[in-house]
Amino acid sequence: MTQQVPSTEPELAGVRNFRDVGGLPTVDGRRVRPGVLFRSGHLAHATQEDADFLASLGLHTIFDFRNAADQRLEGPDVELPGVRNVNLPLSDPADGAEFWKMVRDGDLDQLRGILADGRAAARMVTSYRMIVTQRTGEHSRVLHALAEDSVPALMHCAAGKDRAGISIAVTLLAVGVERDAIVADYLESNAKHRRYRVRRSGSPDTAYTPEVMDLLSPLFDARAEYLQAAFDSIEDRWGGFDAYFADGLGLAPETRERLRARLLD
């Protein structure tokens, strides 16, 4: 009989894509412990009620994977009393700055030029591959921190989908969560109430037409092919996940065991 895990997903007014990853099954029959690992979009627009709820979770650490450009656009996270905030950018603010400016401000012809004919999805695949292969130091720091004392923890980026999605996936892989369960949790970011609110310049009748939104959708969707590209890159670079954790992230077997003790029932 499957154990029912209590939901810890309130209707937060100013924080998108919040959820507890507790309850996800591991390959050896265990589950992620509820109340120890959360994920969300940024906390910059959290209301007082949102902040009160987040404070009630007893968080030790918030990992913010946004870069300086993201923080200028959305603002800093709200401060939660007694919670450590760790900013570990998983993308360079200069990387793609012109691209994202075009996404926000470009007209239809410009968007077609940078996004049509599969270019948007290809960009996302490339981004996922780069984050998982080039940001090993940041992922190593997160996993070592979780193994030592940094739980309960919340991981977020801007939308809580890509950078946070990869980091959550890496963490879950490290403790042996089933691959299908990791992908299913990642795809939860597609729910209407979770999705990032796209900001575009101009009037609504031209900035958010059906064609514009169709062009933009690969950037703001959670697609299994994106996460699979990250997994494939790990296999290609290190030959497997155990080698990735040992050689790529410098995670000793005893550290992974402490991580399991922290995160699993």
Automatic annotation (TrEMBL):
Known InterPro entries for this protein? Prot-tyrosine_phosphatase-like (IPR029021), Tyr/Ser_Pase_IphP-type (IPR026893)
Q: Which GO terms describe its molecular function?
A: phosphoprotein phosphatase activity
Q: Which PANTHER family match?
A: TYROSINE SPECIFIC PROTEIN PHOSPHATASES DOMAIN-CONTAINING PROTEIN (PTHR31126:SF1), TYROSINE-PROTEIN PHOSPHATASE (PTHR31126)
Protein name, as recorded: Protein tyrosine phosphatase
Q: Would you say which domain of life the source belongs to? A: Bacteria
- Species per Swiss-Prot/TrEMBL record: Streptomyces bungoensis
Source taxonomy:
Bacteria, Bacillati, Actinomycetota, Actinomycetes, Kitasatosporales
Task: Spell out the family assignment given in the record's similarity comment.
Answer: Belongs to the protein-tyrosine phosphatase family.
- Looking at the UniProt entry, the stretches that span the membrane are none
